[in-house]
Amino acid sequence: MGQVPIREVAVGAAPPPAAAVQRITSAAEASELAHRLLTPGRRWPVAVLTLPTGYDEPFGDPDELKAAVGDLAEVVLMPTSDVSWAFSRVMPPMTQVYGGAGRVYSVDHGWVHDPTRSRLRFAYSRQDRRRITEQLISDALQAALSAGLVEPRARPEAQRRSGRVQGLIGSRALVTLDDQAVATVWEELTLPGVALDQLLAKGQAVTGSYDRVSRCLDLRAALRFVDVPSALAAVNEAYQVGDVVLAEVVAVADEAVTVRLLPGLTVEVGLDAVTSNWKDRLSGLFSVGETVAGRLVTLTPPALRFDDVDDTEQVKPALSLLPGGPPWLRPPDQRPAPTSTPRPPAPPLPPATPPQQVVRRVPARQPTPLDLARRLPSALHPVLARPASTAPAGAQAQVVQLRNELAAEQATRKALANELADLRFRAAELEAELARAVGAIEQLQTRYRGADLARQRLVKQLRSAQDRAGQPATGEAMLFLDPEEQFRYEVTCEWAQRVPAAEKAGRPLASYVLGPGFLDSLEQLEGISRAKVVTVVVEVLTGQVQHLAGRYPHQIRTGRAGSGYVRRADGATCWRVALQRESAAARRLHYWRTQGGYELSRVVLHDDYRP
Asked: Quick one: DSSP state of residue 78?
């Protein structure tokens, strides 16, 4: 591989990293490297590749790694010995590297507290040379892209060329240019967090900046919708309110899930827009990286709901991030299922003593054969090489003892090496089991959401039928002549149905009264079902409304922002909670919080702020 063709070196910044692979040969150099990695302000990612104990060369290829990343990252080679011990003493737990493995340390120090952000790349033999080298190249280029070192700025000798995608191989795409030359598109030099098959497809026509040295075709200048303004414009042009669209999950919390409609546009969706089951936690219903379908309820800003999407509804295709490219998101049933095959048992490595995973303290280790040999008086070194019977009489016993110790040490080290190989194979098996378990969890999450959506649709259909028939939300006929008694009955029934039996004692209905104009406002206001009002009243009276992102409970002010809050002579404060969202006509519920409980005031339109 040649050097990456697109770079930016800021004027007046620190000089670029060394042009050659740097070799760490002493404990002092290793300690200095660790301190430098942990010091804020470092400009370049650093790729550290280690030599296995007993080897003069690493299993990966540091020269190929350096040629690929060029001046976008440093490449460091370090032996597994007392040198790597010195490195490990300084580094935080789980961020060390040794034993033939490699690691890229990004400029962003998030890996200090979350080591998974600096992935440890293993190599078990020379057969892993290609794999670990390509993994470290990918990690280094992604780190450089995230650090802002790679900008879509062509070198003077780069050419604007066109061609057609011939196929995708992992994180690389092969392109045949118009003159039949072959170019490569690197996933790491496109969009962070977007796989290459989300950008390109076989047969797609592409145009970009071509570097003759690396034969790399840079397509970033052609990327679409990668910032908020362009993404918003694209969403408003391609979609309409009510469309069912695809989104990718980027973050999950118990009460909200964050998805992105496009790489430059994220939307947060609250619990109330996903499920009506209060016991659900969205962290158990969604997985980061999952593709989900939601309904657009507004376009500016975009807002989604996941609780009213029918499995039979037509889903709008996702937009393409490159001209003529595939939709950047595909429904889950159209994406290839991930597979993972356990690695065959690795051959035993030469004896190795890995550094302890601790900071600032390394416990004493067992002596190695070399250590034992060093304990000998210098006069006995030539004696040890001869048969014990030919040694001087006074040294024969010591020679035999030392040889026995050496043999025992060698047997112990061989057993440990075999055990290490078994552990590596078991780790590969566990990794495969984890991949299968994650896949099963995602399938169960999808099935649960589908079942929950079906339940919610049936409830809505039932309530719609009840509204058309003029019946209350409970499905019962009017059981009371007094409207207040009837409303209280509906509230009690809704509470009994929504709150599980085990939680009723901890979530009782608070005391409440109906204000003089409440029932009249409920009957006169159109555009919202009585059932929805009853549901929100129960959320208020049980305190659940304070934990629902879509309700926005807040006190009503006497005037503009910054003015005081509305308060009655008896000390009651007036509150407002959302019944609907995202429109000027959205309905709101006004109520008073009194010393003894609640007083329901009115059901109003969004722009009506009278208590």
From this structure: E
Q: What is the CATH number of domain 159-222?
A: 2.40.50.140
**Tokens coding 414:** 């061989």
The domain defined by 483-605 folds into: YaeB-like fold (3.30.2310)
Annotated domain spans of the chain: 22-146, 159-222, 228-334, 340-357+365-469, 483-605
* Residue 354, pLDDT above cutoff 90: no
Measured from the Cβ of residue 392, the count of other Cβ atoms closer than 10 Å reads: 10
The DSSP letter of residue 360 is: S
User: For the chain, what's the residue count?
Assistant: 611
Residue pointed to by tokens 């991030």 = 321
Question: Model's pTM, two decimal places?
Answer: 0.49
Q: How confident is the model at residue 355 (pLDDT cuts 50, 70, 90)?
A: very low
- Superfamily name and number for 228-334: Nucleic acid-binding proteins (2.40.50.140)
| CATH architecture designation of domain 22-146 | 3-Layer(aba) Sandwich (3.40)
Q: Measure the CA–CA gap between 469 and 476, rounded to whole angstroms.
A: 11
Query: What CA–CA distance (Å, rounded) separates 330 from 247?
Result: 9
Residue range 424-470, pLDDT digits in tens: 777 777 877 787 777 777 767 767 777 776 776 676 667 666 655 54
C-alpha dihedral over 140, 142, 146, 149, to 10 degrees? 60
Q: Which residues have CB under 8 Å from 429's CB, separation 6+? A: 342
Cα-Cα-Cα-Cα dihedral sign, residues 326, 5, 36, 12? negative
The predicted model gives 66-81 an average pLDDT of 91
Check residue 394 and give its pLDDT: 62
Angle between helices 393-468 and 530-541 (to 10 degrees): 130
What integer pLDDT is reported at residue 145 of this predicted model?
A: 80
